[in-house]
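so my prof wants the structure for this chain in the tokens format not the other one, which i didnt know existed until like an hour ago. anyway here's the sequence
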Amino acid sequence: MKAHLKVPCLAIAALVVACQSTTPAPPPTSASTPTSLATSTPQSSPTLAPTPIASPTPSQIDLLLPAAKAEGELTVIALPHDWLNYGEIISTFSKKYGIVVNELDPGAGSAEELKALRRAKIAGDSPAPDVIDVGLAFAAQAKAEKLLQAYKVSTWDTIPDAAKDPEGHWYGDYYGIMTFEVNTQIVSTVPKDWPDLLNSNDKVGLAGSPAVSYQALMAVYSASLANGGSLSDIEPGLRYFQRLNRMDKLSDAIADGQTVASGETPIAIRWDFLALSDRYAQVGDREIVVVIPKTGIIGGLYAQGISAYAPHPNAAKLWMEFLYSDEGQLLWLKGLGHPIRFADLSGRGVIPEDALGRLLQSDLYLEVNFPTGEQIGAADKSVVDNWALYVP
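here's what i got, hopefully its the right format
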């Protein structure tokens, strides 16, 4: 899959540091290679004095609002309510602006989102999504196929340059790192690293096939880094899951909070924000533990874009203004993800202390690797072409 992002997401690495610091990290001096973080951060959340939430510039909202209200609707796709707090985000947007939000296929993956845009382009399918929220390589691919229209939100300058298309066709929205979500009511020995999964008697689950799920693709990427691979070589990850499958330890189920709770996949390889959400939602005697593996630590950036064939283009732009306002970014943070404007929010002291306290506090965040769009695109092609051969 061809990707158009030419620089590594080094600026995203700075945001990880900012997650535990009130001062944004300085920009990197080089963008020639992917990086791991190399500076230290305090283990306790800083005390931040919240200031009033800044909204998009009134003039931009004023220009959009009448046309958006005339359209009256917004159609989204692949936004489960328990993913990054999208349930509250959608309802807040709808009430704030009086826009009805139509929700298509909440369980879809990034590949399905692009298929929906292609159908809208070729056949004018209805209903068609106005906006997408996809993995980085899929956003670059959507631009390459001319499926997205350019739009720069009013907070554009606070989005790191490495995390947005210069022309505004897509822009990073949030990121997560790969973790093990473990149901300790079933799993007697909590895995700390990738070799432990091979030695466990418990089933391990992915968020679907890596050929269609960005989250699952990044799990294979993480396993590759932990087993001798690199950001340009995902084959060791394919071999790892081939071995796990041959040992009958890889579940066929699409892993989520319910399969972890039920024991169908007592160990799931998932984004930190999803695993943490399940941990905080746990009830009864069940205890969910979230583990950052000691090796192969990888971060994944998601991105927003507006369809070039959006039925409600003004409502779509208004949606983007809301998501990239302080209010929208803090709602993503409430969903336990790292919003893309974290450094800006932290530097201005608008993040409540309790929100920071709910995130994982770990030095392992300093070792997160962020592949470039080109590397993710190459890895995606390798997995699409070979996953069924390794894991039939």
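also thought this was worth mentioning. Confidence is low (pLDDT under 50) at residues 1-51.
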